[in-house]
Design a protein that fits this description.
The complex is a heterodimer of chains A (91) and B (187). By secondary structure, chain A is mainly beta. Chain A has one helix and six strands. Chain A has a four-stranded antiparallel beta sheet with strand order 3-4-5-6, with no helix packed on it. Chain A has a two-stranded antiparallel sheet with strand order 1-2. Chain B is α+β, with helices and mostly antiparallel strands. Chain B is 27% helix and 33% strand. The chains are: A mainly beta (91), B alpha+beta (187). Chains A and B meet through strand 2 of A and strand 9 of B.
Chain lengths: 91, 187
């Protein structure tokens, strides 16, 4: 079993959660001034690294809250979990 | 209350586990974050909403179940009238909270089916279909949790020793019941 520690409900099984993609992607302040390429970069391009990655997760079958997770994609080790709006831990 | 057929097709009544539907019970979903919201609800219901995760509070007439840091479900401990679809409780909360923009009040009476699971072997059923760790839940009366049971979203409330309230969405209820029936027959 792969347990995830929801910051609101405590430790739960991974099947209660949904992954929500990369975290900390900022919406450009002036979207109208972007070129199509830059806009596509913001909309679609995501990191897919082997190693430590910052992700958003949702406790979909529990409290339905979103939170952030730092996860090593190569071995699924969870390095840190923090709530939305909180500063990411320094690596 | 609208008239629905019971979701339990074949009665599950064994020595080690029995399941019955409890209906009609008033269920209200409450959402809000502000401090005024909490004090207002407290005044209206004459009880405090639980703020600790996975817990519930009970008064004579009502039980409040923690769902999320800003979401609760209020259920009535007694059966409601079958003749009307309205409840004074909902009207009162709607007027004092929804109308004043403090939070949201939603009547989920007909959305959720309440099942009462009773017997020594209730937790055996869960070990077959739920990934949740029931060790702490079992020990503490009033514990609640939202989890999955046989891939169906459920809300569980520890009412008394070996007595659980299970809330499931009406559209999934029949399926879940037949799964529990099948599961119980093998215990």
């Amino acid at each position: 079993m792969f347990l995830i520690n929801c910051p609101y409900c405590g430790e739960r099984d991974q099947q209660e959660f949904k992954a929500g993609g990369e975290a900390h992607i900022e919406r450009p302040k002036q979207p109208t001034e972007l070129s199509d390429d830059e806009w596509a970069e913001y909309l679609f391009m995501r990191k897919n690294i082997k190693g430590v990655q910052f992700e958003r997760w949702n406790h979909a079958h529990g409290c339905r809250k979103w939170f952030n997770m730092v996860r090593d994609t190569s071995n699924d080790e969870i390095k840190a979990i923090y709530k939305m709006g909180e500063k990411p831990p320094a690596q | 209350m609208l008239n629905y057929n019971s979701v339990i097709k074949n009665e599950i009544k064994q020595e080690s586990i029995s399941v019955k539907e409890i209906s009609p019970v008033i269920k209200i979903n409450l959402r809000g974050k502000k401090r005024e919201f909490l004090t207002n609800v407290g005044k209206n219901l004459n009880m405090i909403l639980p703020t600790e995760a996975n817990t519930s509070t009970t008064s004579d007439k009502l039980t409040a179940i923690w769902l999320s840091p800003d979401e609760w479900m209020i259920i009535s401990n007694e059966l409601a009238s079958k003749d009307t679809n309205k409840s004074d409780l909902y009207e009162m909360l709607f007027n004092s909270i929804s109308k004043t923009n403090l939070g949201a009040v939603i009547d989920v009476t007909d959305q959720f089916v309440q099942l009462e699971l009773k017997g020594e072997n209730v937790y055996e059923i869960f070990s077959a279909g739920s990934p949740f760790n029931f060790n702490e839940f079992k020990e503490k009366k009033g514990s609640t949790t939202q989890t999955v049971l046989n891939h169906v979203d459920v809300i569980l409330h520890h009412k008394d020793e070996n007595i659980l309230n299970l809330f499931v969405r009406r559209s999934f209820a029949e399926h879940l019941c037949s799964w529990i029936e099948d599961c119980a027959s093998r215990l």
